[in-house]
Structure formats: C-alpha cells, structure tokens
What we know:
mainly alpha, globular
Amino acid sequence: MANHHQPSAQTRQRNHILEVLGVATRLGLTSFGGPIAHLGYFREEYVNRRKWLDEKTYADLVALCQFLPGPASSQVGIAIGMIRAGFLGALASWIGFTLPSALALIIFAYVLQGAKIEEMGWIHGLVVVAVAVVAQAVWGMARNLAPDRPRATIAFLATIVAVTWQTALSQVLIIVLAGLIGWLLLPKKINVKSSSIQISISRRAAVISWGLFFALLLVLPLLRQMTSAQWLAMCDSFYRTGSLVFGGGHVVLPLLQAEVVTPGWMSSSQFLAGYGAAQAVPGPLFTFAAYLGMVTHGWSGALVATVAIFLPSFLLIIGTLPFWDWIRTQPNFQAALSGINAAVVGILLAALYDPVWTKAIHTPADFCLALLAFGLLMIWKLPPWVVVVISAIGGSVLVFS
C-alpha cells in the first residue's frame, strides 16, 4: 500500500510553484519604491525569512541582473522563482510580481480615455513628480556607479552625447563604447570565487534561449518594415526596449518615449502622466508598458506590450544562469561592466533634462513643487507613493490658484 504521508515529487513541485506565486503576489501588491527598494523587499523575504538562498548567492544574483539589460528587480524575482521551482516557478514569480501594477495602470489608462489630460491639475502633479523621482534615481546611481573621476567622466560624456544625439541607436552605441572604455582603461579587480548557484537548466537550453533572444532582436524590425501590422510594430518597439535598457526602471523612459511619442502614438502629456502613475503603484516600473499599450491599442495592446517588454528578461535569465559561475570571476568583464554602469547614469541624467524636465517645469510654481517632492523623497525619506499623492494634490492646487 502506498504511503500517503510522503508527497510525490510532482506534488512537491506543484506546492513549490504555488508557494512562489503566493509570495510573489504579496510582494507585487506591497513593493512600493522602485527597483532598489524591491531588491530590499526581496532580500528580506527570500534570504532572511524563507532562507531560499544565502546572502552571497543573492548578492551575486543581483549583480548578474544589474549587468543584464532589462528590469533588474523583476529579473531577480524570475531567477529566484527558477532556482526554487524551475521554468514554471519563474513564470509564477513574474506573474505574481507584475500583474497587480499592470492591472492598476491599465485601469488608470482606461479611466483617462478621451480626457483632456493637459487641463487636469492632478495629472500635471504626476508629470512634475517624475522630475523628483528621476532626479533621486540619478543621484543614487551616480553615488554607487560613478563615484570616482574616470567613471564620473564617462557619465558626463554619455550625458552630452545622449542629449545632443537622440536616436534609438545612440543609446546602444553609448553603452557599447562605455563597455570598451571600461575594459581598456578601468582597473581590473580579481573577483573572489563565491558560492555556486544550483540551476535546473541545461546549457543546451541556455544556448537556445540566447539564440532566440538575438533572433527576435534582428527579425522583428525586419518584419515590421515588410508589413504594416500594428501589433508587430508594438512587439518590435517593446521587445527592443526590454532588450536594450541597462540599469532597469527609470532608464526605460527615453527609449520608450522615442518608441511611442515620436511616431505619434500618444502625446507627451499622456506619456508622462502614465509615468507618474507608474510611480504610485507597487511592483516593477516596466509595467508602464501596460499603460502605454492600453492608451494606444486597448486591452490587446496592453497584453502585447507587457509580454513583449518582459520576454527578453526571461530569455536572458534562462540563457545566463547556467554560465554565471564562470562569468563572474572574469576581471575584464567586471571592468567593462563598470564602464557600462557609469554610462547608464549619464543616459539617465540626459533623460532627466529631456523629456522629464522640459515637459514638466514651465513656471516657478512647477519648480517649487518638484523641489518639494525631491526634498520629501531625499531628506524626509517618505515612500514614493506618498510623495506622488502629495504632488497630485499640489498640481490641483496650482491649477486653481
């Protein structure tokens, strides 16, 4: 007779997947404060409380996801789900963490349909608060990623190039050049060997995943040129953005703006209002794609945009985890990465000027509201969602005054 007390391997796997989904959903509903804050929540939950992985392994995973293009915090979540419960665990982790904020932003876009955004005071407040949030991100990243003269120089040069030469290609070239400069000129540090990560993915699956990542990056723009299908254009825009954004959340702003505002899919005001709203909801900033998809093409657009912007993250995590133990001990690789990270700070500083500042700050009152929001974030250390609400109220007051 079978022993009913011992769960089968299949049951254990299913329990692991459901456990990952439950934890990730709770994090998706409560993780306010952007990518850096998310990594803090994750550490508390997965390392301290549940002990799914140790401190060193977690730090290495964060380093990996900071290096890969895409949303770093979401990728850490996907990787932890994968380590815990395989492919389905990764999917469960992503759905739980992403769905709450994606739905909130879709509803926000739906409510705003047809409204004259330019005339709404509270929407103007959301546009203004984006200045403070991006400024805070630039400040924090500059202190961590460009703390010395060589890296600060890379950051300033990247800013100048990004402001004066705004194309989809310029960002990629800045990142490639910064990586080269880092590799050639920045000091090489010998990395101490750290604990190895147990992964249930074969190297063959990893290679296939890399192949698919590059194939889509090359084929989607070609297909877009050959046909006028709108959903293909969306797939290409959002997949490319998800593939080329280094440094996560806020850096997605200039790339997405080039993809949706420049071709006329929406106005700058609609774009920045959604970006402001994305600050007010928990979960990953990349769910901003759900809002953009909803504004431009309704429910199906929201689904296509969300899946397309996160798909590269899945392919990159599957493609990299099996090789990560070897990669992270290479000093040349570390030096190139330092250069890339410094350039990311520069690209973000350029975005702070245009579109964020140029679209939001028109009067001394706007400047004062942005400064107030910045002070509340930096000095008073208020949670971003509180600052967003205060700014929305402030925006309404400015309109009536």
